[in-house]
Amino acid sequence: MKNIKILGTGCAKCRATEALVKAVAQGKGAEITLEKVDSLPEIVKYGVLSTPGVVIDGRVVHAGGVPTRNKVESWF
Predict the structure, then answer these.
(1) What angle do CA 19, 56, 47 make, to 5 degrees?
(2) Which of 24, 32, 36, 29 is nearest to 74 (CA)?
(3) Domain range list for the chain
């Protein structure tokens, strides 16, 4: 099971990233826990200055803009 955090303040790109990650995980049959982090101090702790950001198992794998479907699929 992968622990995934979506870092962002709730903008449209953050919501699109969350939806994309959920859809790809479901399509791949991957078990995930998904958490939204919207606190700016928490986001900055990950070193992310441009949202949305994606953290998988404690490691930042993406920051800034909606990731491509191919990129998200590579995480699973």
Answers:
(1) 100
(2) 24
(3) 2-74
For the beta carbon of residue 57, count every other beta carbon within 10 angstroms. Answer: 10
**Which residue type does 28 have?**
K
Cβ-Cβ contacts under 8 Å for 9 (sequence gap 6 or more): 38, 40, 43, 51
In sequence order, what are the residues at sequence separation of 6 or more whose Cβ sits closer than 8 angstroms to the Cβ of residue 18?
Answer: 6, 34, 36, 52
**pLDDT digits 0-9 by tens, 20-68:** 999 999 999 999 999 999 999 999 999 999 999 999 999 999 999 999 9
Peptide bond into 52 cis (omega under 30): yes
Q: Which fold has domain 2-74?
A: Glutaredoxin (3.40.30)
